[in-house]
# Entry
Amino acid sequence: MENLQAALKASQSPAMKTLPFEQYATIGRHIGYAGYLSLDAIVWLNSVKFLRLPADRANRVNIASQRFWLAGIAYSIVVSLLKLNRLNQQAKAIKSSGIKEKDSTIGSVGEEAEKKIKLKTIAIERSATRYQLILDALDLWLPASNLGYVYINDGVAGIIGVITSVMAFKTQWDVIGHSK
# Structure
């Protein structure tokens, strides 16, 4: 439900209207994750015998779930790449808009401080986006392997799962305010 609301919000966001590719990829990411989570819940309910799906239908639901997950991750990677490109362009524009004359007026000092703050904000956003890109690049292998697109043995899949789980936990820990 949360992902569908986020997709709707992204589709109606005036800020996203100026970034159509980022907007469409964001919507795709949220729809992919919503489909995955919904179908994965059905797979789980079947595995604990709350639902009684025939084996062929349970397998089809699981495959559809993995496809939605793969699509959501792929769109998330696209969003991250587009966002990194946009942030790099913004940083470049800010750096190139430097004050040509070094005078000691209050305005130029204030503009320099504002420029530093903007660059710091962009650096923080770029760091978070790179982190998400790494997480998605690792996660991508799990549904791709489950669908048979690539072969990853269980040990490697387990290691990837542990790494991405720790990374996601750290992100959530930081969000709720328990960072250093």
Summary: The chain has seven helices and no strands. Residues 80 and 130 are 7 Å apart (CA to CA). The chain has a mean pLDDT of 89.
